[in-house]
Give the backbone structure.
Amino acid sequence: MGYVDRLLAREEKIVFVTRQHWISLLPTILVDLGIAIVIIAFSVAGTLFAPPLPLLGLILLLIPLGHFLVRFIVWRNEQYIVTNRRVMEVKGVYKKHVSDSSLEKVNDVVMEQSALGRLLDYGDVRIITGADIGVNLFRRIAHPIRFKTTMMDQKAGHSAGRPPEARPEDIPGLLARLDELRQRGVITPEEFEREKKELLERLR
């Protein structure tokens, strides 16, 4: 079981996964390639004067190669995930950073694509929520249109599956029903506490 799979709650499933577009690696590729070309040029020129220089050049080539590999691994481990309940941003190789927004808290989604972004299929997606953070900005992600439409489809399905707003006099009965579902293992204790909190807030 992968790291992301362990983050999923009961009956939660991954619907769509993307990451930053490969164009975000372009500056790293160009810099490391330029350094490698310079090292190779000096190594070839050095064969006429100092035989040890080519061997030193080969060793120095490990620097841009290693730098690119590290950047690639970091890029590969950065994921933007849509599930049937939330949107997650997962970063880090060994030290993980995970942030998520519940679909029911998403108020609006803004997508921006340049002309090049439309051609290569990447763009920025800004998720506006009712949470304390307020805005989540995902820059240069691949397949932004599919990411946005998948998220909105899941939000619509999530909202459609929720029961109508409860009246204050119905809340005690709903709490009892929630507790029964918790005892039967249909919902997790965390889900019970979350739903209980939302119901109690309606009594205020």
The beta strands are 14-18, 79-83, 86-91, 97-102, 106-112, 122-129, 135-142. The two ends are 43 Å apart (CA to CA). The chain is about 50% helix and 20% strand. Helices lie at 3-7, 26-46, 52-60, 62-76, 115-120, 144-160, 171-183, 189-201.
